[in-house]
Structure formats: C-alpha cells, structure tokens
Design brief:
Blueprint lengths: L3 H10 L4 H23 L1 H6 L2 H19 L22 H20 L2 H10 L1 H8 L13 H6 L9 H31 L5 H29 L5 H9 L1 H11 L1 H6 L1 H14 L4 E2 L5 E2 L1 H14 L13 H15 L3
Antiparallel strand pairs: 1-2
Helix pairs in contact: 2-4, 2-10, 4-5, 5-9, 5-10, 9-14, 10-11, 10-12, 14-15, 15-16
Length: 331
C-alpha cells in the first residue's frame, strides 16, 4: 500500500505508450469532475464543455489505443474482464471500442439543444447515427461473446461458472443496450419529445455509458498489472448492468409515455436475434436492418408513430419491398 502513490505516478508518466497514458489520465480527471457536477450541479454541467469533452476524450483515447496496441492478438474472443480471467485482451475489442465511443459522443451532442440544431442541419450525419449507424458496423472488426463462451482456455476452473454467468449477462445486456441505450434516446430527440426532465435522465445514461466505453477497458489494465483480482475486475465491469437497471427504473415513465417508441425499439431488438435472410450465396439481409429503414421512413414522413401498429397501408408495404431490394445490393 505504501508504494501505491508511486505506482499510480508511474502508470501515467512512464515513457512507453506515453500519449495513451496522458489521454487516459485526462479522461479519468474529466470523468470524475463531470460526474460530480452532473449529480450535484446539473444546470452548470449542462452549460459546461464536459458535455462533449468527456465523450470526445473517450473517442480519442479509443483511437489512440487502436494505433498503440497493435501487438495484441487479433481474435474473436474479446478477452475483457467480464468474460475471462486468463485471456489477453483482443485487438478487435480495442478497435471496436472506437465505434461505440463515437456513438456516445454523438448522443451527448444530439441531446443538447445547442448542438442538436447544428446536427439537424447536416441531415446525412443525423440520419446515419440515429437510424443507420450499424449499416457501417462492418468497417470495424468484431469480437464475440460466443467466442469467449466457446473457449475452454480463457477461464480458470475456480472462476469458470461465475465467468460463464457473467458472459451471458453481458451478452443479453449488449442486445438491450444496442436498442434502448443506443437508439431509444435518439429517437425521442428526433421526434422532439425530450423535455428538460427527460433530458436529465437521458444524460444519466450517457454518463454511465462513458464508464462502459472507456473505464471498462481501463479495468483490464488494472487486472493485467495485478492491482485488482480477476473477480474484482469482473464485478467492476458488470456493475454497469445494475447501474443501467436503476436508471431505466427511474425513467420507466419515459418508456411508458413513449410506448410507441419503446415498442419500435423492442421489435428491433427481437429482429436483431433473427438470422440473416439468404437470397444467394453472396447476398444476405438482416431483418433488423429492414426494420430500421421502415422506421426511418416513418419518422421522416411525419407519420403518426402511435398508429403504426393499427394502420399498415399499401404504400408502406411497397416501401419495405423496395428497401429490401436496396439493402440486398449493399452486400
């Protein structure tokens, strides 16, 4: 314990990977101050640069990591603390983190009235991140929780059952997060339904998402240096799940008052589980992507969303057929 202060100083000042260490230290300082201000002085926080500097720092840090840790193994097993206590962190996990960090930065800007007006004028940029961001997900490498579950070498026997349970919890959480943490707040803002109280709750999601996107990777560093044990690292990662559960319990009225948008996200989540539709050996289509096209059409056409499930007219049917054809040629 007496060496702890010296170890912390060395961690952030050692010459090797110095730029990554500095960006990491700046992020931790910013995140700590930002979180304190959010919970204690929200009005001041909302007008401060922390709204965008924290997620921007997260994105820069993730890009820096992708250029720094190129020596990490390129494997589908993610290797992070919630799924393994033996595996090395995958380079794919490091690189794909920049994808989620960019989503976080966009959400933080989009929920702010000042930056929302600027983004709306871009049209294409707004459409990409609100509706079609996963259309370009293939530009990043992908790690898979299933690969971690299938591996028999990434877990010690003592922690195997706990880590398998943790892996399944993270797997299903990611599915929920993609649609209710990622797109649900953006849909509400796109439709002009976000008032000040709702904005506060939705920004709470982004505060926790900053932890999930960046600090969760830092946890692996602490485990690698043996500052914390593997089970402590797992808990420090998995704590985001009850954290989000509390947030969504607090904002359950938002889900209820916007049941139409909640239903749209729920359908997307279910379709996300559906297998690809195979047209030919080369051409497949994700049912979820077709649904996203349909939702974008409804939103942009000012269609009364609350009647979506009771009034499915012929033009919409033909639009879906056309969308399927267009998406087919994407592959």
């Amino acid at each position: 314990m007496s060496h702890f202060p010296c170890n912390v100083i060395k961690l952030f000042t050692k010459r090797k990977f110095l730029s990554h260490r500095i960006f990491g230290l700046v992020f931790l300082i910013q995140y700590t101050i930002s979180t304190y201000l959010f919970f204690n002085h929200y009005v001041y926080w909302l007008s401060s640069p922390f709204v965008y500097t924290v997620p921007l720092n997260s994105l820069i840090q993730s890009i820096n990591a992708a250029h720094t840790f190129t020596f990490l193994p390129k494997k589908e097993d993610p290797g992070f603390a919630a799924v393994s206590d033996k595996a090395v962190l995958s380079y794919y996990t490091v690189v794909e983190n920049s994808f989620y960090a960019s989503q976080l930065l966009f959400a933080c800007l989009y929920l702010h009235e000042k930056y929302f007006k600027i983004i709306r004028k871009t049209i294409v940029f707004e459409a990409l991140y609100v509706f079609f961001i996963f259309y370009i997900r293939h530009l990043w490498p992908t790690s898979h929780i299933n690969a971690a579950l299938a591996s028999t070498k990434n877990k010690t026997d003592a922690n195997r059952k706990t880590l398998i349970l943790s892996s399944y919890a993270i797997k299903f959480f990611y599915l929920f997060a993609k649609h209710f943490i990622g797109t649900f707040p953006l849909y509400l803002k796109f439709l002009g339904r976000v008032d000040k109280d709702m904005q506060h709750n939705l920004y709470g999601i982004q505060i926790l998402s900053s932890y999930a996107a960046t600090i969760s990777i830092f946890i692996h560093t602490l485990k690698f240096k043996k500052w914390i044990g593997p089970m402590t690292a797992m808990v420090a990662y998995d704590i985001i799940i009850p954290g989000y559960a509390i947030l969504f319990y607090r904002m359950r009225y938002i889900l209820y008052d916007n049941s139409d948008v909640s239903a749209i996200c729920f359908i997307a989540m279910i379709l996300n589980l559906a297998p690809k539709i195979q047209f030919t050996k080369e051409h497949t289509i994700r049912p979820w992507f077709i649904w996203q096209l349909y939702v974008a059409y409804l939103f942009y056409s000012d269609y009364p969303i609350n009647t979506i499930f009771s009034n499915f007219n012929t033009p919409q049917f033909y639009f879906i057929l056309i969308s399927i054809g267009l998406h087919w040629f994407r592959f």
